[in-house]
Please model this.
Amino acid sequence: MSHKVKFFKQVEKGIELASQYVDYPRDLIEQVLQNNSIIHLSFPIKRDDGSIEVIEAWRSQHSHHRTPCKGGIRYAEIADEDEVRALAALMSYKCAIVDVPFGGAKGAVKINTKNYSDREIERITRRMTFELHKHNFIGPGIDVPAPDYGSSGREMAWISDTYRTLSNDINGHGCVTGKPVSQGGIRGRTEATGLGVAYGLREFCKNELLMDKLNLKTGIANKVIAVQGFGNVGYHTAKYVSEMRAKVIAVSEYEGIVVNPEGLDIEALLAHRTEHKTMKGFAGGSFSEDRNSVFTMECDILVPAALEAQITIDNWQDVKAKIIGEAANGPVTFDASQKLYEKGVAVIPDTYLNAGGVTVSYFEWVKNLSHIRFGRIENQFNQRGFDNLVNLISDFTNKKMDTCLVEKYSQEGDEVSLVHSGLEDTMIRAFEQVFAIWQKHDFKFDMRTAAFICALEKIALSYKENGIFP
Model:
């Protein structure tokens, strides 16, 4: 039986373990575990050569304890229903941990984008949106997708345009996040997940108690890091931890791995791969086709930033890193993580670490519903829009923004700085909450269970507020 079939069960195991440390009735735990709604779509599209192909897609809404539901849509030929259900569940817990008022959802289209032209991908995306709208699985108050593996702002713009054409909804831009800025997006969304990972790694490494347990020096500076995946999340993670003076010595992708013990120039590597479509031949490091060697690198921090189930019960013993930062969704299986804890390896869970994307998506969604442009000032400044964005981020982070910063931003109209500030405060606050639970229960190297407890407590509070449970 493959790990794909086990993915949802792996997520359930994590919640089951966490439920032992909370005093909630069993029926509430069962409700949290359940996947509320899922739709399996099959629809035809015409290929460029005139042939007809039937495309498979899924959309899962794990929890409606908060609405709308929220989660990305990935384009991957290995996608299946089990994966979508598991990822939707993780989104519920992730949103709860960072106090984003969404339920969890996830979607997938079963294609390899490399085998389709841009025109074909557009037809697939628009037809999928039509099907989701027909079945009431999309809308600013119902279910709000976002980019994921294999998709980007381009696909989100197509989804938004199609939905608004079908619905004539005045809030139509809010049906999806991760859009280009010109189509109702928000500055800072593209890098949000990777930047959030960098903030989370920084917070973990600055904690003296955790670093003492791992026999590491406090602080992220000079930490040796290996990154698996050089897509949007992997690139931005590597970029921002490098700016924090960490040393990224290895980056792997599907074609292989580039290694430089002195540290890689991330911008130069991106430029090379963008031009040549491969990391092979990059002058700033040695290349090998053994992409999986990233898991055996001698490093302080290993960052899996690709797909789920990359570190499993079959290869956990090969990991030499002292910290694993889950930048992807579910890259370390539950069973493997338990073995890693016994080995003295800490895993920073995805439910906390890669929540930057959904946090900034929340800012974008609110911006769309408010119908106010939080743009950069050129000739005229929209003071009302700026004040609303400042108030949103201050309320969300429960932290009053420094007066000097507000005055500075009000003069410059710098939306990116505001978004980055809100994201940073969110990651700091969420880490403090998860760490407090970890410390209370003395979980040794297990921060995943602490994060799940944090999510359970917040979801249970939501049910209580809704009058579902006493």
